[in-house]
Amino acid sequence: MLKELLQKSHMQQREKVDSWEDAIKIASIPLLKEGIIEESYIENMIKSVNKNGPYIVLMDYFALPHAKAGEGVNRLGMSLLTLNHPVDLKGNPVKVFLVLAAVDATSHIEALADISKLLMDPKNYEIFMSGDLDKINDIL
C-alpha cells in the first residue's frame, strides 16, 4: 500500500527551506496538483502545529505533517520532502517531511504501519535522512 501512496512523483528533494511552514507547503505540492488535497488541508496542517505544538515530529529529523482526516482531503495520499539542511520546527530540527492526507480514521493505518516498520531499520532510516529519492523509492 505504501508504494501506491508514496509514488516517486510525490517525492521532492531540496537543499533547504526558510521555515517549517514552507516545508509543509512545498511537501504538499504534488498532492495539491493531483487534487488529492485542497489548499485548506495545508492551512489546517500548519494551524494544527501552531495550536498543538510539534507533535508531528515522530523521530529525530522526521516529521509526519497531517491534520484532521477528511477535511480538505479528496482521497488518501502521501508526499515526501527531504532537505539537505534541517529546518527548525518549534525546537526540533527536521530534514524529512512525510505528508499524510487521510480521508477517514482508518484507511491510512496500513500505510502508517508500513512506514513505521521501514523506519525502525537503522539502514532504512539513514536512507531517508540521506535524501536520495531513488534509494527511498527502492526501499518502498
TrEMBL record:
Any one Gene Ontology cellular component term annotated for this protein: cytoplasm
Protein name: Ascorbate-specific PTS system EIIA component
Localisation: Cytoplasm
Function noted in UniProt: The phosphoenolpyruvate-dependent sugar phosphotransferase system (sugar PTS), a major carbohydrate active transport system, catalyzes the phosphorylation of incoming sugar substrates concomitantly with their translocation across the cell membrane. The enzyme II UlaABC PTS system is involved in ascorbate transport.
Gene Ontology biological-process entries: phosphoenolpyruvate-dependent sugar phosphotransferase system
Top-rank taxon: Bacteria
Keywords: Cytoplasm, Kinase, Phosphoprotein, Phosphotransferase system, Transferase, Transport
GO molecular function, one term: kinase activity
Chain ranges of the PTS EIIA type-2 domain: 4-140
Organism per entry: Caldibacillus thermoamylovorans
